[in-house]
Amino acid sequence: MQIQRLIDVAAGRRPADLVLKGGNVVNVHSDEIYPADVAIYGDRIAGIGSYNAMEEVDVSGRFVCPGFIDGHVHIESSMLSVPEFARVVVAHGTTAVVADPHEIANVMGTEGIRFILSSSKYCPIHVYLTLSSCVPASRWESAGAELTAVDLLPLLSDDWVLGLAEVMNFPGVVAKDEIVLDKLKVAADRVIDGHAPGLSGRALNAYVAAGVQSDHECTTVEEAREKLRLGMHVMIREGSAARNMDALLPLVTPATADRFMFVTDDKDVDDLIEEGQIDVMVRRAVAFGLSPTQAVRMASWNAARYFRLDRVGAVAPGYLASLVVLDDFKTCRVARVYHAGQEVAVDGRCTVDSGSPRRAPVLRSTINVHWLEPAHFAVAAEGNGCRRVHVIEVDEGQLQTRRSVEALPLRNGHVVPDPARDVAKVAVIERHQASGNVGLGFVRGFGLTAGAIASSVAHDSHNLVVIGTNDEDMFAAAVHLVKIRGGLCVALGGEILADVALPIAGLMSPAPADELRDGLRKLHAAVKKLDCRLRRPFMAMSFLSLSVIGALRVTDQGLIDVDAFERIELFPL
Question: Which is the CATH superfamily of the domain at 64-350?
Fold first, then answer.
């Protein structure tokens, strides 16, 4: 693009490359919606007003908005490769994402981060990264890598890296842990995202004072209000498992709207295709009562300003011509999407290929498990009749867990699950170094009456996690995951009912989005045969080993009391 020609187009001295004709411009700067043409030259918006061009697209009666920005997303949670993820979300109007490659970084360290950067170069959206700050998430998980400030520092020089991703180790920040503080120091002149569920009072003050600027873990108005008062930006999250939008929208007012942005965090391919991404959040925000300009600002401009993206997130001269054309704000149906001046989606379908290089980046296998036997899943105990154990309590739609103590039956010297009371066994198997670590516990909330389910997606260290009603099916499911180099599966009677292979770091599939979605639907249909009652059981299961959120978790090292941040015995005193 030549600036002289851009000026000529803006001044009307030469025709634009493209004009979106007769639409209603959604102006996030002036909080207005008004009829005007949008003229595009190269990858930039040249002018707003009345223009002519070599190519004109009639968007009469429709609304021209800045392309949507997802301010915090783990692409790996979609289970799609980066190019396929981009093709899915651009069809919903998303033209940029800020991705935290936390999942693949926990598996492969900087090799995984560089893989995401490399894969992102050939996409119909902009993929920015923030660097994963907690690898591993805590000392109570065995990850495949460890990232220090020294490891992260060279990556900060990449133009597509914006700062430091969610600082989950908020206890370490408050306690002045030097390893954590070193990471904050190297990113001090960049954006630093937070992750501080339930943190309050003086501890929250200390966390913010250390340089953390945002949070996406708010679940109540009271929690979000306190963080707003301390100057934090609040990311309203609506993912597959955690859905906080309804709870937080009441806090959004004209006075506070500039401090909020929309994010998905973790959303699987089925939900991305069927529900949408940021577009559905705009629709629901308007239905709640926000003005369309407020909703669009939270879907684009606020994230662009927070992440210091120059000339992005608005419909204005000189800004990047990444635009979404909506039919209306009741349905938020996406009619057209333009990215950097190029049409990339029409009527909800991506119209360009991924532009992938001739030879896509290749990763090594990451499933390295010590020899397994059914006996590794047994919970030995002395006594007769019953034995009291700690139980992890899972609720639909929440990442937080509760805890309880239940008396479970003893059979042949082993504690066994009690499906009649919805208590299943959970095992977490270390899969990076073949250490042989197997953490065991019990969980309520899945509703399984038979069989087992297993996954190599298990936040944040992504060891193998298996939930079942008997050791034989748990063993069969775990072994199958090793055979397919990672993924998800359902076992019953020693047989595999359904599976989805995720050979990219045990987290993602190279398959097209529709093919992966169909595989996931078959998987969920198979889970229904086990009477599972959760909407997204594999997503819920993936968070059971996350040792930095909730009341009680289980990792390959055993049962973790998150509040006390210590390992505890399965059997209460």
Answer: Metal-dependent hydrolases (3.20.20.140)
